[in-house]
Structure formats: structure tokens, C-alpha cells
Amino acid sequence: MEEAPAVEFFTHQESLTAMQWVLRAVTAYLFLMIAARSMGERSISQLRLTDLIIALLLGNIIAHPLSDEELGLEGSMITSASVIFLYVLTTKIALKWSFLRHYLEPAPLPLIRSGRLIREHLHKARLTIDYLFTELRAQGVDEIGKVELALWEPGGILSLFLKPEYQPVTPAALELSTEPFHLPMPVIKDGRIDRKQLHVFGHTDEWLLKKLAEATPLAPEEILLATLDDQERLQVYAK
């Protein structure tokens, strides 16, 4: 049988060459990347129920043409695009209609209030006491009695608020003056000068090389990371 041209990988075929399989995989990968970008960015721990359903649905739709040459890729992509359109439309409508927004993103569930465990809410969230203690330990809390409020967020994250007497002391509480925070940004990464970031600070390569010479005998190629802040403080980390 005569081989189908490489451009026909998109439609259903009786057989596909190795290159056509690769092209299908690349096309599906790029399509899913664009789909994920259009749906918004969330980490796995922040996925809502609808996000998880859409992700599983899209993966299932795209997976079949990647393993069955008799299934065309165009049908899966059209179906996926329709699902994405409905998802984006639903999300935008939810921003305007509060009843739909509350259904898709329910209010956080209080699990602890004033140091007392709300058992019925724990059951509603389908959480065990052991899991709750695991979450508390992960946030450095060893006793429920120290917690003023603990909320189980829709994304599956526990938000904690300690009682005032157990909250860390801050400079503001002691009425101490502090210096403004200046975020350091990388200007050298893996031996290469980041000119774009350097220009944000309003400096040139020559200025940076002079600054480096004052701080370290290392050449840029020998530096793993160098950071600079608004106060022109340079931190250098060798390879």
C-alpha cells in the first residue's frame, strides 16, 4: 500500500508512518498548550472541580487519535475547542451572575473557630482528623487551640489564622522602623549577562563588569547567579 503523505496525519488513515505519529503528537501537544493558556493558569493544588473535569475531558478526547490511526485528529480538536469555549463562557458568566459563581466556587468552609474543631464541617469536606493535623503541622501549628480560624478553601488549601497571642511578633507591633524592601533580580544567570534585566535598572554591561570587579575576582563565565536590587547591591554566587 502506498504511504499517505505526511500532511495527511491530521485525518483518519488505515496506517500511519512513524513521522506521521510524531506529527500527531506534536500537534496535540501544541494544541493543549494553547488550550491551557486560554483557560488560565492554575497550579495542580489550585484546580477547582470544574478545572479538573475539563482537564480530564480534554486529555481523554485528544488521547484517542494519538493511539488509533483510524481516528482523525481534526474531530478531537474541534470537540476540544468547543469544550474550551464553553468553559471560558461559563467562567465569564459566573463573574456576572453570583448564583453560578457560588455554585462553581463555593465559600470556604470553616473547620476550626476560636480553637474549637467544627466536626460537621470536617465531615462535609470529607477530611479526616489525621489529615487536618497533617495540614496544621505543615504550617507550623502544633495545637488546634492556637488557631482562631481555619478555612478549607474550594481549591483544597487550608488557610490558617492564629489567635493574637500566638501570632509572631512583627516590627510594626513593636513600633520599630524598618528599611524598605528591595527585590533583587538576576542580572547574571549561568555565566550569561541578562541585558534585558540590566537595562531595567538603567545600567550597561560595562557598569556591571566594573561592579563585579569591585565585588569579586570572578569573571561572568564563572558566576552561577548574580542579583542586583534598586540600591545597587550586588550578590554573587559562584558556580
TrEMBL record:
> Where in the numbering of this chain does the YetF C-terminal domain appear?
96-228
Q: What is its main location?
A: membrane
Membrane topology summary: Multi-pass membrane protein
GO CC entries: plasma membrane
- What's one Pfam family here? DUF421
Report which superkingdom the organism of origin falls in.
Answer: Bacteria
Q: Kindly list the places in or outside the cell where this protein is found, as annotated in its UniProt entry.
A: Cell membrane
Could you list this entry's UniProt keywords, alphabetically sorted: Cell membrane, Membrane, Transmembrane, Transmembrane helix
Listed Gene3D superfamilies: bsu07140 like domains
Q: Which InterPro entries match?
A: DUF421 (IPR007353), UPF0702_alpha/beta_dom_sf (IPR023090)
Query: Family, per the entry?
Result: Belongs to the UPF0702 family.
Q: What PANTHER family has UniProt attached to this entry?
A: UPF0702 TRANSMEMBRANE PROTEIN YCAP (PTHR34582), UPF0702 TRANSMEMBRANE PROTEIN YETF (PTHR34582:SF5)
Name of this protein: YetF C-terminal domain-containing protein
Organism expressing this protein natively = Paenibacillus mucilaginosus K02
List the taxonomic lineage: Bacteria, Bacillati, Bacillota, Bacilli, Bacillales
